[in-house]
Amino acid sequence: MVHFVGAGSGAKDLITVRGMNLLKNADVIIYAGSLVNPELLEYAEDSCEIYNSAYMTLEEIIDVIKTADSENKDIVRLHTGDSSIYGAIREQIEQLNSYDISWDICPGVSSFLAAAAAAGCEYTVPGISQSLIITRMEGRTPVPEKEKMRELAGHNTSMAVFLSSGLTKELQDELLTGGYSEDTPCAICYKVSWPDEKLSLIHISEPTRRVVIS
Question: Among candidates 149, 119, 106, which has minimal Cα distance to 18?
Answer without folding.
Answer: 106
